[in-house]
Amino acid sequence: MEGFGFLSAAFAYPDMQAVEIRGISDLIEGKNDNSVEPEDIRQEKASQHASAFAFEVLSKLKIISLSQSTVPRATQEAFVDYNRALEINLEDAKAYYNRGNDYYDKGELDLAIADYNRALEINPEDAKAYYNRGLAYYDKGKLDLAIADYNRALQINPEDAKAYNNRGNAYSDKGELDLAITNYTQALKINLEDAKAYNNRGFAYCKQGELYLAIADYTQALKFNPENAEAYNNRGFAYRKQGELYLAIADYTQALKFNPENAEAYNNRGVAYSDRGELDLAITDFNLALQINPESAESYNNCGIAYYDRGELDLAIANFKQAITINPESADAYANSGVVYSKLGNKQKATQDYKKAAQLFAEQGDTAKQQRVLGRLKQLQQD
Q1: pLDDT (tens digit, 9 = 90+) per residue, 173-194?
Q2: Closest residue by Cα to residue 134 from 89, 164, 95
Q3: At what angle do helices 3-12 and 109-122 cross, to 10 degrees?
Q4: How do residues 346-373 score in pLDDT, each as one tens digit?
Q5: Is 351 helix (H, G, I), strand (E, B) or coil?
Q6: What is the C-alpha radius of gyration for the chain, rounded to an integer number of angstroms?
Q7: Could you say which DSSP state residue 278 is in?
Q8: With 0-12 CB in 10 A as exposed, 13-18 as middle and 19+ as buried, what is 178?
Q9: Full-model pTM
Q10: What is the per-residue DSSP string for 157-190?
């Protein structure tokens, strides 16, 4: 694992001999000591130290050449300033923190984390560095590490509403919805006008099936940010779940007003139109969604359902096949394809698709849908 540290530098500076960079990483203090920590933790730390220290030394050796990069000039100049600051003082926590922020903005999360690590080694009471490192870990999908950093940030600064909100996001992604809601509520105690926290808490309530509470939170989010396309889209979803199709379509339309490139809102509005039997409008919306996101298996599946309802079975099959091509784990698309083949009298293909759907539903833990498909399969075999 520690090899990642010198590899980060090697990829950034291909003209530098790899053995020289590796040598730098091998000088990291504590890298080869007899640590009592578990191997995976020791290796993770070694990687982080290696990356940060290698970049420090390479900067000091004046190997950095940002002038030929595609980084915007303002960011290039900022990097030059941070590197100069670190040439003068390798213990400049602020320079590491700021350079980490720039790496984060560029999407270079490992380099950002390495710089936040160095900043925190120098100043272990920097709540912002813990918070920002938590954001980077969250973006990498390392939810437990993100939560640990948000915890530390909140120990230092208990009034940080953003840390509560983002810790709530991590808990929500883990499926720990009660903890997520608790964190969003705490964020709102600190900042009653936090539209993001209202939207996020609404999303957690919606996942719990608490639709009235979800709608109330989305409405509050829109009160404080009337152009929040995400909140309109989310409230539209909750309205549709309640059967309020007119209100759902109105919200999806508002979402698209503020974000015309929102493929999810087109897809969701298409589903609402389909529920109302307005199949032409539904198909139009699904196609608009696919123009924006041609890799959406969900939109192809939904479009196939609309074509089936319109009696255009060949187009329905074509859309289900495309959904399966994009996502071979789409149990719904297999099940729907089985329905169409059954209607066409092709028992062999219908049986094949039903069996695949039942298998996938079982693997995905959706026993209710699995049983429905098995019921269709049994009926098909009896006919």
Answers
A1: 999 999 999 999 999 999 999 9
A2: 164
A3: 120
A4: 999 999 999 999 999 999 999 999 999 9
A5: helix
A6: 26
A7: -
A8: exposed
A9: 0.75
A10: -TT-HHHHHHHHHHHHHTT-HHHHHHHHHHHHHH
